[in-house]
Specification:
mainly beta, 13-stranded antiparallel beta sheet, 13 strands, globular
């Protein structure tokens, strides 16, 4: 087993006992219009996931996103993931590195108010290791609501990629009732890098609220990338704690 996977499993075991109420969000590509409370550190962590496409198999380990509440309705986000292609001669890489600020511009049902919650997220796409050279930028708008029967969130984003091309992203998340211990979730995604790849994807899975402030997720994502099939199995944990 690669060293990064072993380290990810050890980190998971170490943090479970200290988990507090969490609002961070897995296992989706898009997000929800909510942020961490001031002084709260929310972590979305996958020790190992798996992707298969026409080129072969890739282990994704670890995948990490950290959200820190810096002020009321504001959070700082940092993310990235390691990938280990099982193709002869290809090195492991660190990709999808980015830093963002996320701000709730309208408090709604996700903040225990009425009506839709609305948020914006903006930031920089950072260089990776052995891949993702260069810098880029991204801005996104998120809107959604939660009801007794479930929740729906929409994300629309525009980006200047690290290769200095334009990219658009549209995503919709659907989830079952929040008070279910195990709730079904789904996501639809359309993504286009102009002059390059076009992606259609659908995700289906479950989120298990093991106890207050500790959630596990498992999902399968099926995508079409320029007409070629791609399958990804995602598994992870969400937890949070206060730094105050």
């Amino acid at each position: 087993m690669p060293v990064s996977i072993r380290l990810g499993l050890l980190c998971t075991a170490a943090i479970i006992t200290s988990a507090q109420p969490a609002l961070a969000y897995r296992p989706f590509d898009s997000t929800d219009p909510a942020v961490a409370d001031p002084g709260e550190l929310e972590v979305e962590f996958s020790p190992v996931s798996f992707r298969h496409d026409d080129g072969g198999d890739t282990w994704i380990a670890p995948q990490l996103k950290i959200n820190y509440g810096i002020a009321p309705n504001w959070e700082f986000v940092i993310e990235g993931q390691g990938e280990h292609p099982q193709f002869e001669g290809l090195p492991s890489v660190m990709v999808d590195n980015a830093v963002f600020l996320k701000h709730v511009v309208r408090e709604g049902t996700l903040q225990e108010q009425t009506g839709p919650s609305i948020a914006i997220e903006f930031g920089a796409l950072l260089p990776g290791i052995n891949e993702d050279h260069g810098l880029g930028a991204e801005v996104a708008g998120i809107i959604g609501s939660r009801w007794s029967w479930g929740a729906i969130y929409f994300t629309a984003a525009a980006a200047l990629t690290r290769e200095q091309t334009g990219e658009m992203f549209l995503g919709a998340i659907f989830e079952g009732p929040l008070d279910w211990t195990v709730r079904p979730v789904a996501e639809l995604v359309y993504e286009r890098e102009f002059g390059h790849a076009e992606v259609f994807a659908a995700l289906a899975g479950v989120i298990w609220e093991a106890k207050e402030g500790l959630a596990f997720d498992l999902a399968v994502r099926q995508a079409s990338v320029e007409g070629a099939p791609e399958t990804e199995i995602r598994a992870g944990i969400t937890f949070a704690f206060s730094l105050r």
